[in-house]
Each structure stands twice: as structure tokens, then as C-alpha cells.
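Weekly puzzle thread! Below is a chain. First person to post its structure in C-alpha cell form gets bragging rights.
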Amino acid sequence: MPWILVGVLTLTGLLFRVIVFGESGFGDELSTLWIVRNNDLAGVVSIVHTDAEITPPLYFLLAKITSVFGPTISSVRLPSLLAGVGSLPLVYAAGRRLIGSRGALAATLLATVSPFLVYFSAQARNYAVMIFLLLLATLLILEATAEGGRWWHWAGWSLVAALALFSQYTAGFVILAQVLWVFWFFPAQRLRMAGFAVLAGLLFMPWITGLRADLDSPTADIMQALQGSSFTAKREAVEQLFFHWIEASPPTFFHRPDMMLATAGAAVGLVAAAWRLAGGRLNLPQGERARGVWLAVAMVASVFICTLVLLALGTDIFGARNLAPAWVGMPFLFGSVFVAAGRRAGWVFLILMIAGFMVSTIRLMDPNRSTINYSRVADQLDDSGEKGTILDASIASPAPLTSLDAYLETDLPVFKMTAIEDRPDYIKQLFATYDAQKILDRAFSGAGPVRVVTADDFRAPREITSGGAAGGYEIQVNGQTAVIPPGWEPVSSHRYPGLEPLTVTVFERSGQTGKSDR
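Winning reply:
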């Protein structure tokens, strides 16, 4: 019966993740698509070894394999989707050993609806694959240390631990916690644990030059700057780890029903567990259960402790994505609270936590609130005719590939407002300046029509109402104002709502057609 429930939860989790999977891609996903689209398997490893990426190569190799029929946003997202859905039965399988079947079901339920896990199960980045591998490593270390554990459980742990490191360096925090857990609770296994930990390190050794290059990469400094160094930025990183909310300026706590509901649930669960403990009605776990709870605690604590130690030493990786390995142990801590709170309070805890998570997850499944609708814009541009040009003045891309590039199938010339060139060392050009007016003039140098794509309502083409160019049109891009050459008029404009609204404005030479707005 429990496995039937796990099957239902897995299918439910698949549904949530598939909905987000179908949304438009943007941001770091474009780097993944660019790497896969432009390289064979050997080339993928080679390019990831450069400054173009500061992550290990496993995810990109998997994405290359799933893109065998052509690299698209969907094909490079597929490893995350498979890993994210596959993690749900692993949560139950490992949780049953750690905290018992009842707690494991609660853990699986919360993992199913977790907005962080749902979102990154549908993104073309490495986090879902890393979590899947670390959950598998958890299950293998439990089997290895159990009575009847075999050598191949240890060897399997070494292999999976190495693969986790090949997916994301911060996986090492959880691997360290597992090693220390064995050293503490299984003294007779210390030598064996040390040997297989060394084996995992040796398996990872071929990438040590890539790790060294990534530590010295300017991309690391860029990422540290983007994630912020203030206390507020660190608090928001922890909030995002639990309640993944995509918005330029997320609302405060008292305007966030997801956070209020889940916080109330956590308070109920923890207070009830403490009350039962003080009253002698909560029997602390013993033996295997006690070891299981401590492993869950260690896997979560190690992530926060290691990132804070690195921060104190001058390397700031304390951001929501780098805290992602904490989700390997987090479901089991939630499951432990559910059991410890007692039946009534435990269900109140679970229901409020689910409600809070679902508020965030449902919001993620709304493309008008969680993504930028590049795919819809690309569809319009693909169907807009065989003449003219496209000017992509929308959000800057972190790679030579833009979000429109990911979806466009047109043969029309595309002019992009970026200084990034399509070459391996593009990262050095990430903040290079460029002349927006020159790019715009080139786009408007033909007979037309010109389809201008802009992001944010403020940056949409607008009529100039003062100065010597009054009566003309201008756009705002990258802090610059670019003026549409004289003799061009907007004939249609279509706005696409989303996280950042996109506007497609079609310009034609004056006198060719009447102006319309749709």
C-alpha cells in the first residue's frame, strides 16, 4: 500500500514538473543550450572546462545525449525532469530506512509539492540531477552500513558520490556529512569508509584541472556579485530555498501566504514535538532510527556550515542554488517533525506545510508570473512573413545564445542588442559596452518591415515628444536610448504578459500601410 501512494505522488509530481517544463526558457539555461548546440560530446567537456562555465560537465553531457534528435530547450531540460521525478521514490526508499514508513510518506509528499524541487526539475541546469544522485548515495550508504551490507554497496556509493561531484561541486558537502556519519556511528567501518571515500576522490580526479580553472574563473566573481553579499541577500537566499518565488522584487513576509502558512505549520510541528518531549510522551528514536535522524540533520547542517565557513574565508557561494544540496536531507527532517508532533498536531503541520508550498508551486505553473514568454513571441515572428528584419532588444542573455535564438526558426536576419560574440571566451565580453544606435540603424537599413522585440513596458518603443527629433520613436536598452531612423512608423504592437512583459512592435516605412494596434 505505501508504494502505491508513492506511485500516485510520483505521478502527481510529474504533472507539476511537466507544466513548468513547458514554459519558456531563459537565463542560465541559454548557456546549457549554447554548449550543447555547438559541440559534440568531447567538445562539451572542452568548453565546460573553460571560463564559459564554473560547473562540472556531467549535466551538459546528459543534455547532449537527450538532444540526440536536436538541441532545444525541452531536450536539454530532460535530464532534470527525469532526475526530479525519479527523486520522489528515492525519498521514500531512503526515508523508510531513516525515519520509518510514516515519516517517509510525509517526506515524499512534501518533496512532491516543494516549489524549489518542482522548479529545478524543469530547468536545464544541474541541481535536480545532483539531488537525485545524492539521494541514491544516501540509500547506498544506508545499505552498506546495514547488517548484510555488501562490498558493492560501498563501491556503488563511491561511484555515485563521484558522479554527484561531477554534477555540482557543492554535492561534496553532503558527501562529507555521510562520511562523518559513518565514522561516528560505525567505528568498525571507518577504514572501509575511508578507502571508498578515497576511491570516490580518485574517480573525480580527472576533473581536478577543471575544478582549479573554475576556482580561478572570473565567472565565480560575477556570480558572487549577482547573488549579493548583504544580510538581506542571504536571508532571501534561504527563503528561496524553501519558497521559490520568481519576481524582481518579491513581496514581504506578510504579503506572502506561502511563507505564512508554512511557517505556521513549522511552528505547530516544532512546538507540539517539544511539548510531547517535555511531557514524557515522545520517545526519542533509538538505534537505526536515531542514526537516521542524525544523518538527515548532518546532511542539511553540512551545507549551511560549509557555505558559511567558505564565506568567512572570503569565498561567497551562499546563494539559494548552492544551498540546493540541503534538499537531500530536508524532506527527512520534515518527516521527522511530522512523526514527533503526534497525530493531530502532525497532520496540522503537514497540511499547513503543503498549503504553503502549493501556493508557491501553483504560481510557478503560471507562465504569466514565472517566465518570460519568448516561445510565444518566437511563434509570432516565425509566422510574420518572409520579408524584413528582427531587432532583439529584449533582456540580455548570459551567453551568446538569446532566448529568442532558442525558439526562432525564421530565416529573417536577426540583430541582437548585445556585445557577446559566439566564441568560447565570451564570458570576458559579458559586461562589454556596445553602441545600441549602430545595431538599431543596421536593423532599419533595409526595406522593412522591422519587428522590434523589447522587454518591460518602459523599454517598449515610444514616441518622442520633445527635442529636435519630436515625432520620431525611440527605445530604451541597456541604459541607452536608441532612436528609430526618420521615415518609419509603428503599424502594430502586441504585448505578451509574463515575469517581464515582452512587446513586439512592427515598424514600416511611412506611407506603406496604415497604423494599427492589436
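Puzzle host: Confirmed. Bonus trivia for everyone else. Confidence is low (pLDDT under 50) at residues 514-518.
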